[in-house]
Amino acid sequence: MTNINAEIAESLFEEDEDEELSRSIASLPTEDDLPCDDGVPMETPRHRDQMILLIESLKAYWGEDKRYYVGGNMFLHYELSGSKKFRGPDVFLVMDVENRERKSWVVWQEGMRFPDVIIELLSDSTRTTDKTVKKELYSRIFRTPEYYIYDPFSQEFEGFWLKKSTYESVQPDKEKRIYSSEAGLYLVIKDDWLRWMTPDGHVLPTHLELYRHSEQKLESAEQKIYEERQRAEDAEKLLEKYRRRYGEL
């Protein structure tokens, strides 16, 4: 067990001074003790790519300085009795937490923090569960403020915002976007992919997209330099031809 559980237990129960309960929390398994995933790949390569796109673009935009955690297709352990209760959201976001690598999300190791945003990618095998069982769990147990479902193939897209203990449906606007107040960003369908977008309309690129964009800018700059050099050489040749015919200016 790590010392982090002891620290969390102390902060959570300092006022009650319930040492026995604190020790009980501290003795629970951590991310080092619990399984992190089931080893089952996502339904299709497109589901996998969609998950990576949402996670990596947010990481590229916020970087390492902001306090947050975004993960996906990893276990989220939420029952204090141990390892019996867990889920594996396709994408989830927790705000105002330490920005560090994790094997899995263990709520009692994180100060009893649950995700602020969850995104499930619909498939034929998960559609019913995502719309019923998980929706009920995320609203009543997790109390996650925002829950979104998206089908990477049909582009079915719907949001649910928590009102008291139930979710209210939120539909995309005419530009196929829903604003996430938790993230301060839009979720928007662009070119058949679900993307994050800033309020002023800039789609968040991934690290790879940023790299490719930088390469394109570099290639464009190199092309301009080449063209300028060619024009200079052509001008020099023309000037030399003029000198041979008419002499020095």
Can you walk me through this structure?
The protein is of the alpha+beta class and 249 residues long. The protein has 3 domains: 1-29, no CATH class; 31-204, tt1808, chain A, CATH 3.90.1570.20; 206-249. Helices cover 36% and strands 21% of the residues. It is built from 6 helices and 12 strands. It has helices at residues 3-12, 19-26, 45-62, 127-131, 133-140, 207-246, and strands spanning 68-71, 76-77, 86-87, 91-95, 105-106, 117-121, 146-150, 157-163, 166-170, 177-180, 185-190, 193-197. The strands form 3 sheets. Strands 1-4-6-7-8-9 form a 6-stranded mixed sheet. The chain has a 3-stranded mixed sheet with strand order 3-2-5, with no helix packed on it. A 3-stranded antiparallel sheet has the order 10-11-12. The chain is elongated, with a radius of gyration of 26 Å. The N and C termini lie far apart (86 Å). The model is unreliable at 1-6 (pLDDT under 50). Residues 211-245 form a coiled coil. InterPro entries: Nuclease_put_TT1808, Restrct_endonuc-II-like, Uma2.
